[in-house]
């Protein structure tokens, strides 16, 4: 059975929120106006064979083609060597911005493994957008755009990827991509199979300050195995250079998912032994296949471009949890539960871009309708209640953005209006107190100019972070007899005000921003009225969380050695008042990574990457351990780069710890955990006549999908 949620995970060096919430948005096209702007301001170009950095109207562009980055191996290897991008175990973050959405040639990436299918030598550029404009969803804080080199040739092509890695368990990924191109027609299909296992060991020390001082020491071991299948198929057709259509269908079928959970607890009351509890848990997921369909039209009428996308999504998830709780001093318990969640979403988005008064005007709208049913049943209704909830949400978001090149620099201003109607039903009955409407304006403005040899940009934006639907659910999950977990239907959206200055000078880049998160959502626990020995874990809003983030990056080149040094810091300002004490959670977190790429003879590439993170505060958490992460990889290509062999070792020092002290109303929780991040990985890739995909769909409702 699933136990305490991970309080904070920071392996990968950057700061992230405790809530699992991915950030999404949509692409807005580059224009000739901004190309002109870039040329007039000039490019900061490092000497031959080095990455070339250019400040664009949206972000910072790193040219990859013809540089040392083109020899990294794959897109996955390239991204972790791009300034401000930090590699995590399960993806990437942008410094100070959290998880970005990633586009590959204008198409939103659906699976992180897609990066491994792109050879670094095929990448033209990577653009990091740290201040997404009004055309992006208001929850989008960062965007990464990858553009590949357009290749000549038609006909049939395919590529395969076979991955094996060992982390005390055998794991594998098998993937094949097929493509056929002729004239304007592009047919494609992908099949991916994965079978992965992992183990996490953790200790939880919980202290509850009530009339009786309750203390728990818990040892926890979780073993998870997930087997899944994914099929992607679709087409695109270019009628001519000005008009194209396409559709893409994704079927995800979980073949097997099982989590075993072993938990033992030693409980004291006022310092005296109270109980010893041993729990065996099992969670089995029996999900139905999920379906996602994207269709698009891209067109050009004169100097006006049109981008229309529609997305449909359906899924049904079933989880069965079994918990056998054996008590030494009190009654033993057997708790069985089942949870069925069904999601439906339809979304459409229109973006129109045209020149106006010497500048460029983008405008359009996005509409999203989401329906979610959440049914939870448990055999011990004397301890927990069954619940049957339904959530409906409609979002309408018109937006407008204007950019103009002036004699003193480029000015971009945009405004996005979002109307959200949220309806909550409990057991089929409409709940007006938990149902709400939101009407919000989200402005963005930026100014870019060349100051000497420095290209700089100053920006201000208002963004939001929305709670996931599981965080809004009133289902109560049983952890043990002293701990339970639920959602909070009364959660408000978080609003983030951010001011940022960024720039580039030769091979040096820098950024500093200040953020005020209002109605910030934090991980929270309170005692159950009438039985304060029991802790209820949930989420809540706090009035304000303020922080400053800064980083500097340098990427010189010395012979065959191409190092990159990134140094960063996040400083919070937050005072938390609880029934126990008042805590000043202001200690900064320092981060750094030192990436080293070596171009060796015989086409061999060696990468040695080291990452560091200090202790410090984030939200209502103190990170109590430093992290030291060392990754090493070596790759070699054969058959004119058609065949690639790579050997990689991750977290070789095995010091990617999570040690988090969480402060709550009457409870303190220290969690120390270590997941199986140290592994040895072998990858074999083969490509035949592969060319750049012509699919141009950017998707709609991308942020909403990640809340389901």
Write up what this structure looks like.
The longest helix has 10 residues, at 32-41. Residues 1-51 have low confidence and may be disordered. The two termini are 21 Å apart. The strands form 4 sheets. This protein has a 30-stranded mixed beta sheet that branches. It has a 7-stranded mixed beta sheet with strand order 1-2-3-8-9-6-7, with no helix packed on it. It is mainly β and 708 residues long.
Distance between the termini: 21 Å
Q: Structural class, judged by helices and strands?
A: mainly beta
Question: What's the level 1 CATH class?
Answer: Mainly Beta
Indicate the percent of residues in helices.
Answer: under 10%
DSSP, total strands: 41
Q: How can the largest sheet be summarized?
A: 30 strands, mixed
Structural descriptors:
single chain; 30-stranded mixed β-sheet; Maltoporin, Chain A; mainly beta; 708 residues; 65% strand; 7-stranded mixed β-sheet; disordered N terminus; 3% helix
Architecture blueprint of SSEs:
Layout: H1 32-41, E1 44-45, E2 52-55, E3 60-63, H2 75-79, E4 85-88, E5 91-94, E6 101-104, E7 107-108, E8 123-129, E9 143-148, E10 155-166, E11 170-182, E12 185-209, E13 213-240, E14 243-269, E15 272-285, E16 290-301, E17 304-327, E18 333-356, E19 359-378, E20 387-406, E21 409-426, E22 429-430, E23 436-451, E24 454-465, H3 469-472, E25 476-480, E26 483-486, E27 494-505, E28 508-528, E29 531-554, E30 561-573, E31 575-577, E32 582-584, E33 589-600, E34 604-613, E35 616-618, E36 621-623, E37 627-638, E38 643-650, E39 658-663, E40 667-675, E41 679-688, H4 702-705
Parallel strand pairs: 6-9, 26-29
Antiparallel strand pairs: 1-2, 2-3, 3-8, 4-5, 6-7, 8-9, 10-11, 10-41, 11-12, 12-13, 12-40, 13-14, 14-15, 14-16, 15-17, 16-17, 17-18, 18-19, 19-20, 20-21, 21-22, 21-23, 23-24, 24-27, 25-26, 27-28, 28-29, 29-30, 30-33, 31-32, 33-34, 34-37, 35-36, 36-39, 37-38, 38-41, 39-40
